[in-house]
User: Fold this.
Amino acid sequence: MLSPYRRMSQIGVFALMFVIPVLNSYEIYAITGTYYAINIGGLGITDPVAILQTIVASGELAPPILGSLIFPALLALILGRVWCGWMCPYHLMTDVTAWLRAWFRKRILGKSEWEAPVVPRPFKANMIRYGFLLAGTLAAGAIGIPILNYVSAPGILSTEAMILVRQGTLSLEFGFIAMILLLELFLFPRFWCRLFCPTGACLSLFRTPFTMTVRSAVGGGKTACCKNERCTEACPMGLAPYGEGTDLLCTNCGECIDACSAKDGPGTLGFTGFG
Assistant:
């Protein structure tokens, strides 16, 4: 089962947001920064969206900027969108929100059926999120302000964690996170990660034929891999993993793999590629 390992990874990255400012307050600078740009022992890692906006705005490919892209690019090229599925602090919060939504529907409304995703077809979802990424990048280049940084959920959360540790308060930017979480809880489940997240959209572009993806061992992706298509019900991105595991929306979270093997024994879904 992958879920316990995934959850430990998510919680570890979430806790790191608070650990960094605490360490820095004691003048320990082995690790500094936020999830916009972080430095670990001299290794600079920057959100690819921030780099993209900087390049478009300046028209230059500065080596230091490109150097900080190496790690996230390699990670995505080898393991796919594991940042989104296994590490992103906002994704952890949406997992909690999804649990609360399911609990509310079952306990309060008496409904337990699976809810279809907001955008049922991956093609349309990808068109929306890449359109959002393109529009934001062009706007950043036109006005010289990295406007997509203001809607970067992991970047905002890590910045808010730093402010909370240092000042004991939160800024107005946290209101944006609260707003989209409330929308996901009551109206549009998982809509931000599916349709708008610029970081997820950018990371999914780092893909090769050998990048780790989810595939079914039977049916060639045309037939369901488990009874009642539990993998489809489990997928946070609204995919049918047995046929759409290679879609750019997939975060390699492994929820579908766990769902397939939960009751039927070893499932037919698994990771392929470098993984």
Notes: The chain has a mean pLDDT of 89. The longest strand covers residues 37-40. Residues 11 and 92 are 8 Å apart (CA to CA). The two ends are 16 Å apart (CA to CA).
